[in-house]
Specification:
This protein has nine helices and no strands. It is mostly helical and 258 residues long. The chain starts with a helix and ends with a helix.
């Protein structure tokens, strides 16, 4: 009986989680947004987009006010009608320029064509955010984890030559294997995604595949960081050799000079 109760609780918990994800996905599909940023790269890209949006709104509002002022000077005052027209023009400008153009979401084909590995990381984060509403809850958790890993990978790639083998491996892993995995899952009809086939459901296969990609991204990041870690270890050993032997401290050396 206890086992039955426990299983029921698990089913209800998963159902609530799935419903929350679907509701969130519906909201983001209606608003044209992919949800919260999963990484620094996508967050910075959206911040730049919003900064340009605010700039366009301010320029449009300033132009409307200047035009209204000029018209008032020419005709000797706007009057109530002119003020209302100016007001509605300002409201229209704010609404239009705050909605369009929307942030450009990379397409899957764009990811495979991106040669700059650092830019690829940012584009992949944006692409993943907009796929997230269609994914099962465990995969969403992994996607959020991938965002943090992609941030760490991007930081390492800033100091890597584009021709480095690790950069080429990153383009293959992030620009091809990852989007292909998600895209293949999305092509499966929703009613078939939980049906077991070949020993596993499509949802389980997606989660397993994303987990493997996560492990591989972590491996590549560690591989790229090896040089920096070795350099830090060398500098640490030098400082220990130079100042850490306890023979003569800096203060003692200064006292001897006095």
């Amino acid at each position: 009986m206890a086992d039955s109760t426990s299983e029921s609780e698990i089913i209800l918990r998963d159902a609530r989680r799935s419903l929350a994800v679907q509701q969130e996905g519906g909201f983001h599909r209606r608003t044209g947004r992919g949800g919260p940023s999963i990484g620094r790269g996508s967050a910075e890209a959206k911040a730049r987009h919003y900064a340009r949006m605010i700039k366009r709104v301010l320029i449009a509002c300033a132009a409307i006010l200047v035009a209204a002022l000029a018209a008032g000077l020419v005709i000797g005052g706007l009057g109530f009608g002119g003020v209302m027209i100016t007001f509605f023009a300002l409201v229209a400008a704010v609404v239009i320029f705050s909605q369009f153009p929307r942030i450009k979401v990379p397409k899957r084909a764009d990811l495979s064509r991106t040669q700059d590995a650092r830019q690829l990381v940012t584009r992949t984060e944006l692409w993943l955010e907009h796929q997230r509403p269609a994914l099962p809850a465990p995969a969403v958790t992994l996607v959020d984890q991938l965002g943090m890993q992609l941030d760490a990978l991007g930081m390492q790639l800033e100091h890597v030559d584009p021709g480095h083998p690790a950069a080429a491996e990153t383009r293959k892993l992030v620009g091809e294997h990852l989007p292909e995995m998600v895209d293949a899952y999305r092509k499966i009809p929703a009613q078939l995604r939980r049906e077991e086939r070949a020993g596993a459901t499509p949802e389980a296969q997606l989660v397993d595949g994303l987990g493997r990609i996560s492990e591989e991204i972590d491996r590549v990041t560690r591989q790229l960081a090896d040089g920096a870690l070795d350099d830090l270890a060398i500098r640490s050993r030098f400082l220990e050799y130079r100042y850490g032997n306890g023979e003569v401290s800096l203060d003692a050396a200064q006292l001897e000079k006095r």
